[in-house]
Amino acid sequence: MDPIRVVLVDDHPVVLGGLRALLDSLPDFEVVGEAVDGEAGVREVVLTRPDVVLMDIRMPGIDGLEATRRIRESVEGVAVLVLTMFDDDDTVFGAMRAGAQGYLLKGASQAEIDRAIRAVVAGEAIFSPGVAQRVLGYFSAPPPVAEPFPELTSRERQVLDLMAAGERNQAIADRLFLSPKTVANHISSIFVKLAVADRSAAIVRARREGLGGS
User: Fold this and answer.
1) pLDDT tens track for 42-65
2) Cβ atoms of 55 and 104 closer than 8 Å
3) Minimal CA–CA distance to 36: which of 5, 20, 60?
4) Which H or E run contains 6?
5) DSSP letter string over 99-162?
6) Which of 109, 190, 201, 209 has the fewest Cβ atoms within 10 angstroms?
7) Are 151 and 120 in contact (CB under 8 A)?
8) Which residue, 190, 192, 118, 113, is CA-closest to 157?
């Protein structure tokens, strides 16, 4: 069986050395390249065509997310396993959108890294336990409800909601801490954007979409 060919990308030499030593101690792995930033990592992957890349996130030049995206676009069949200390939502989901198949936190055990590399090379997705909980929570959450009338600004939607609730201009101005003239301007804009001729037509449209419960 051919060894799993690995490229390591991390801007800390100590981490690179530790990962190389770890993989050298395990059967079936061959480190075929190393890089200390994202751009060099992409070049190394294009040159060596490994089976998998162990990718850090925060690096000088292009970061690991952009490097992952470029690798997935330009080199077919290469798996990317993120290995980082960052587990915030933006980084986790950014890595997934970029095409990473796995996400481990630095500090993962030798057995976890071994299993994760083999999993992503086999086409599986794998995450550290804490990251996996966040990913599952994200996908099990109900989809956000779209705001009605996306063509309106947030303030115009508030004005329309109060109109649909039967409020007159002065009351709307008092509720929203606006001048009556500003409220009138918002209402004129609402008429144009909703292509309605008058207040009554706007209220009918608004109530049909569930507004007016304020």
Assistant:
1) 999 999 999 999 999 999 889 999
2) no
3) 60
4) strand 4-9
5) T-SEEEETT--HHHHHHHHHHHHTT--EE-HHHHHHHHHHHHSPPPPPPS-TTS-HHHHHHHHH
6) 109
7) no
8) 190
d(CA 188, CA 17): 66
Distance CA 95, CA 82 (A): 8
Q: Residues 78, 79, 81, 87: what is their CA dihedral angle, to the nearest 10 degrees?
A: 110
User: In the structure encoding, which two tokens stand for residue 157, read together?
Assistant: 């939607």
Q: Would you give the DSSP letter of residue 27?
A: T
Cβ neighbours of 15 (radius 10 Å): 17
Whose tokens are 């600004």? That residue is: 153
Task: Work out the end-to-end distance of the chain between its first and last CA atoms, rounded to an integer number of angstroms.
Answer: 68
Q: How many CB atoms lie within 10 A of CB 80?
A: 27
Closest CA to 88 of 32, 135, 124: 135
- Other Cβ atoms within 10 Å of 19 Cβ, number: 22
Residue 80 DSSP SS3: strand
CB atoms within 10 A of CB 137: 9
- The pLDDT of residue 137: 64
Average pLDDT of the segment spanning 120-126: 92
The rounded mean pLDDT for the chain is: 90
